[in-house]
Design a protein that fits this description.
The protein is α/β, with parallel strands linked by helices. Helix content is 34%, strand content 16%. The strands form 6 sheets. It has an 8-stranded mixed β-sheet. The structure holds 2-acetamido-2-deoxy-beta-D-glucopyranose (6 copies). The chain crosses the membrane at residues 427-448.
Length: 491
């Protein structure tokens, strides 16, 4: 009956709502007193590698949690700046790591990747606070410790703070041993265990530079990354505490694009090398004029290069969120995707067939992001967000008070179960009560209609009551019928 099935549908919907609400609170044997989060970065892992190459463990992450279609990263799309943006939520102009190699006219100092191990580069202003420090400074500080392995800046005190556990970058460390170490830190006794961990891995960036994003070598390297990921997932699944409590975010700093030898210029071919110094490279360079009066002339010589964007500092596009820092040059030159600019003394270009660092809006510069664990939806392919939004995302997962950054929590709510569409308990109770009331009304209406059907009989179908006849009864009385006919005729 239609009405009855409607009642069942209502009851069914009601229970679905109830179940979907309770699903976010799984049965947990050993609950952690503070939330657990592991952040992993594979350097140069372009957003579409999992669609191009066969990576079963990466593919399994989308079912287990969330795959974000890609990350909109910030300019410049290179390793140190991007990794610092990921953990601080700040644009490069704000945190001050504007390139892997840079000049600071205030410090009167030059840094590259090997000499950036000094706090002065990372503590340019008080805004910079990596998530591993924020975690340790939270009010319930006794349960919170951070452990960081190989991440840019991890061994440097930043505005006075270092992670509780850290290992300096070591190119010989295998990813497998880094994963084992970080999980071991999570499983220490309560008085010394970490609740936030971060691991950096240098691949597939190295392979991308040497062999390009689409190459048999990349196939090989990504298979290794996928196997390491499989090992990590196994270690997590084998441990009740980690399986039930650990949130994991797997992401990257930038993508990778093919470069050809013919798509490359040498700065000294265009401007007089006695008039400037340049830092950054190869996709972009910050050019400092030795004399301010030469800026216009230097600019004029570069401004008509067709495959390069050249800006005086004040003209750098606002969307780059890049220009407002003393470490950005008087002139910024940025190659169009796949075009490199070689600064004096840089020999790194010789073996390069893949590169990054270009306009952050270019598709090939975008990285991956996957997330799983109790804080995240399952089985979701989610819309992109920015790399500055990672800090508010992690703050939320770690139950930290949000600090002002350039990121926004509202951009990441769509992957967090806490913000499942209006499933607050009050609204849920109201919906359930309404459904129960509707079911009751429907039920009553159905019952009423049903009972009316039992007693209501159309006039031509009046029930004939039978009883046993005696001999006189039932005998046809012709005379009386005749009389009736006569009577009728009289009328
Ligand atoms: C909880 O722990 C018991 C053993 O202590 C184990 O048998 C059980 O599988 C665990 N439950 C879950 C949900 O992990
Ligand atoms: C990667 O290598 C495997 C064999 O190991 C091959 O089957 C597959 O087609 C390769 N994928 C790409 C995109 O080259
Ligand atoms: C930075 O690392 C170099 C070795 O690469 C070392 O000589 C130097 O002392 C380190 N500086 C700081 C501030 O730790
Ligand atoms: C501009 O290019 C010309 C021609 O190559 C060169 O003579 C001149 O020195 C360059 N100017 C600057 C400021 O580098
Ligand atoms: C580029 O600009 C320089 C300096 O203004 C000029 O000498 C040169 O002819 C220009 N080249 C082209 C291709 O327009
Ligand atoms: C980025 O955040 C910093 C620190 O809150 C702030 O000073 C700066 O104005 C922000 N930048 C933008 C473009 O909003």
């Amino acid at each position: 009956m239609v009405e009855q099935s409607l009642v069942y549908i209502y009851l069914f919907l009601c229970s679905i709502l109830f179940i979907s609400h309770t699903r976010s609170a799984p049965v947990i044997n050993e609950t952690s007193s503070v939330p657990l989060l592991l952040l992993i970065s594979f350097d140069g892992f372009r957003w579409d590698y999992p669609d191009i190459y066969k990576l079963p463990h990466f593919d399994s992450l989308q079912k287990r949690g969330v795959r974000v279609k890609h990350i909109d990263n910030s300019f410049a799309t290179v390793t140190f700046p991007s990794h610092y943006t990921m953990v601080t939520g700040l644009f490069e102009e704000t945190h001050g790591i504007v390139a892997n190699s840079m000049y600071d006219p205030v410090l009167k100092a030059v840094a590259d990747i090997s000499t950036m191990n000094d706090t002065k580069w990372w503590s340019q202003n008080a805004y910079s606070q990596p998530i591993w420090v924020s975690n340790q400074l939270a009010s319930d500080v006794l349960q919170r410790r951070s452990g960081v392995i190989d991440w840019p800046g991890s061994s440097v005190p930043i505005n006075g703070y270092r992670p509780y556990e850290y290992l300096d970058f070591d190119i010989t460390r295998s990813l497998d041993s880094a994963f084992r170490q970080i999980l071991k830190w999570f499983r220490e006794p309560a008085a010394s265990r970490i609740n936030f961990g971060a691991v950096y891995h240098a691949e597939p960036d190295v392979t991308g530079h040497l062999h390009g994003p689409i190459s048999p070598e990349m196939n090989e390297t990504l298979k290794k990354c996928d196997d390491y990921l499989g090992g990590l997932l196994q270690m997590i699944d084998d441990d009740d505490y980690l399986r039930q409590n650990l949130n994991v975010i797997i992401t990257s700093d930038h993508g990778m694009h093919d470069v050809e030898k013919t798509h490359r210029i040498f700065l000294v071919d265009y401007i007089d090398k006695s008039l400037f110094t340049a830092y950054g490279g190869r996709a972009f360079a910050n050019i400092f004029a030795n004399k301010a009066s030469d800026i216009d002339r230097l600019y004029a010589n570069l401004s008509n290069l067709t495959d390069y964007e050249v800006y005086k500092k004040s003209q750098i596009p606002v969307e780059y969120h890049y220009k407002s820092n003393v470490r950005v040059g008087d002139i910024l030159i940025v190659g169009k995707v796949g075009h490199d600019v070689i600064i004096p003394g840089d020999e790194t270009y010789a073996h390069i067939v893949g590169d990054h660092g270009y306009d952050n809006r270019a598709e090939s510069m975008h990285p991956i992001l996957y997330a799983f664990g109790p804080a995240f939806y399952q089985n979701l392919l989610a819309e992109p967000f920015r790399n500055v939004d990672l800090y508010p995302l992690m703050s939320h997962v770690l139950h930290l008070k949000q600090r002002p950054t350039n990121g926004s929590l509202s951009n990441v709510k769509h992957i967090l179960v806490d913000f499942r569409p209006e499933m607050s308990s009050t609204i849920l109770v109201i919906i359930c009560l309404t459904l129960v009331a509707l079911s009751a009304i429907l039920f009553t209406v159905c019952a009423w209609r049903h009972s009316r059907q039992l007693v209501y009989v159309p006039p031509d179908k009046v029930i004939v009551e039978y009883h046993r006849l005696n001999n006189q009864e039932g005998a046809f009385d012709y005379s009386s019928e005749g009389e009736d006919d006569i009577d009728n005729e009289k009328l």
